[in-house]
Write a structure and sequence with these properties.
It is built from six helices and no strands. By secondary structure, the protein is mostly helical. The chain has a domain of 86 residues: Orthogonal Bundle (Helicase, Ruva Protein, domain 3), CATH 1.10.8.640. The longest helix has 24 residues. The radius of gyration is 34 Å and the shape is flat.
Length: 158
């Protein structure tokens, strides 16, 4: 009987999972603002996630810092400006278009246009190779003849 209970408990262990407890919001309006700003700030560790989606220690610290600043009465813009001043435009999940981020925004389109232009030039300057030189044609005919002779010899042997 004990073995049966132990086996059941071992099988049920896979279903038991610990999840990170979400902070209980004392002020639901504040938490909505924290969430909105957190979705606009990039996790500096993960780089492809917002701090709202990331579970990295730095992202949690940044989210707590946003919460504290908002609790102090700062506006969303003031919090975002502080983060940009401290970490640069990289912290923004959607950085603004300006001189320092121009290549980030338009670089992929420039590369695509350049690649298509390069391909078009290569295709335009390509020499048509419809006909083989005469020496190559004779060599190919000779190989075909010798191949036909060999296959005929094989058929005679069978």
């Amino acid at each position: 009987m004990h073995k049966f209970i132990l086996t059941c408990l071992l099988l049920l262990i896979g279903f038991a999972q610990a999840n990170v407890a979400l902070p209980v919001a004392e002020n639901p309006e504040l938490e909505k603002r924290v969430q909105a700003i957190s979705e606009e700030l990039r996790c500096l560790v993960c780089q492809n996630q917002t701090i709202a989606d990331s579970h990295a220690d730095l992202a949690i610290d940044l989210k707590n810092q946003v919460r504290e600043m908002l609790a102090q009465g700062k506006s969303n813009k003031e919090v975002t400006d502080y983060m940009v001043q401290r970490y640069g435009d990289f912290v923004l999940y959607r950085p603004p278009v300006k001189n320092t981020t121009w290549l980030l925004w338009f670089g992929p389109f420039l590369l695509l246009t350049g690649g298509i232009g390069f391909l078009a030039l290569k295709l335009k300057n390509r020499q048509p190779s419809d006909e083989l030189p005469e020496a190559e044609m004779q060599r190919a005919a000779e190989l075909l003849r010798s191949d036909a002779d060999t296959s005929a010899d094989i058929k005679e042997i069978k």
